[in-house]
Amino acid sequence: MDWRESLSVGDPHVDAMHKKIIESINAVARSAKSLNDNASVLEYTKAMNFLREYSLIHFRAEELMMKKIGYPHIKVQQELHDSMSYELMQIEGRRSSCMFLMDLLKFLSNYLTEHMLSVDNSEYRAYVARYRSRHPNEAMHDKSWS
Ligand SMILES: [Fe+2]
């Protein structure tokens, strides 16, 4: 999947984080397709570790921002984030399974659609826009976000 404007939630920092997540999901999917030597396993492991760590950073940052703008469905989003983080940890344990690649690719595509298309991009987007129009000069994000 590539980034496209319709995925924007209206905040450049959240969008930048989402772009980074898409890139790292693509890197995991690409490297998982050829796990046949040490170099490719290493590449996959690196990509997966990055996705796992960066997802945690992103989820927490997003939850903080949702709190700040008064987004009412934060609990639902938090639960979704937690279950995605859990799945990401669990999927590693199934690497020796013959279904691993299929399971992983399915999970990654669900991750994107669930996280960016359904939840983030509907009401959340409207809340971001409303907050921005009321507080045009206020940063919505923490300075430590990267
Ligand atoms: Fe997000």
Please bin the fraction of helical residues. Answer: over 70%
Q: At the third CATH level, what is the topology name? A: Four Helix Bundle (Hemerythrin (Met), subunit A)
CATH superfamily membership: Hemerythrin-like
Distance between the termini: 22 Å
Domain count: the total is 1
Short key terms for the protein model shown above:
about 150 residues; mainly alpha; binds fe (ii) ion; Four Helix Bundle (Hemerythrin (Met), subunit A); about 0% strand; 5 helices
Word description of this protein:
The structure is a single chain. With 146 residues, this protein is an all-alpha fold. The protein has a single domain (12-134), classed as Hemerythrin-like (Four Helix Bundle (Hemerythrin (Met), subunit A)), CATH 1.20.120.50. It is 71% helix and 0% strand. The chain is built from five helices and no strands. Helix 2 (38-69) runs antiparallel to helix 3. The longest helix has 32 residues, at 38-69. The protein is elongated, with a radius of gyration of 16 Å. The chain starts with 11 loop residues before the first helix and ends in a 12-residue tail after the last helix. The mean pLDDT is 84.
Write the layout of secondary structure elements.
Layout lengths: L11 H21 L5 H32 L4 H19 L7 H20 L3 H12 L12
Fe (ii) ion binds next to helix 2.
Summarize this structure briefly:
With 146 residues, this protein is an all-alpha fold. It has helices at residues 12-32, 38-69, 74-92, 100-119, 123-134.
